[in-house]
Write a structure and sequence with these properties.
It is a single chain. The protein has no helices and ten strands. With 114 residues, it is mainly beta. A six-stranded mixed β-sheet has the order 2-10-9-4-5-6, with no helix packed on it. It starts with a strand and ends with a strand.
């Protein structure tokens, strides 16, 4: 069973930056679109950013211009560079294929607060 391992979260002040990583060892990675998702307390999990096998990217409106998704197929890793973070970005961040078809990992907590 493929295990997704997210990392890079933490506590950051508004306006700060974080870079999330997600490794998917043992998975078939290259041919699938990948996505970053997040779930804030009391809310449903939402799709934040996607990157296709051809590296076409897309973002939900609330993060467009601030977040950048990228991938390293050789390392089976997807990244999320988050800049100009806002308190409303506070959530647990997860990666998965898009649409999601693997078991969810534990996620990485991102907290934006002064």
């Amino acid at each position: 069973q493929v295990q997704l391992v997210e990392s890079g979260g933490g506590l950051v002040q508004p306006g700060g930056s974080l870079r999330l990583s997600c490794a998917a060892p043992g998975s078939v990675f290259r041919i699938y679109s990948q996505g970053w998702y997040r779930q804030a307390p009391g809310k449903q999990r939402e799709l934040v950013a996607t990157i296709t096998s051809g590296r076409t990217t897309n973002y939900t409106d609330s993060v467009r211009g601030r977040f950048t998704i990228s991938r390293d197929n050789a390392k089976k890793t997807v990244f999320l560079q988050m800049n100009n973070l806002k308190p409303e970005d506070t959530a647990v961040y997860y990666c998965n294929r898009n649409p999601p078809s693997l078991s969810w990992g534990q996620g990485t907590q991102v907290t934006v607060s002064s």
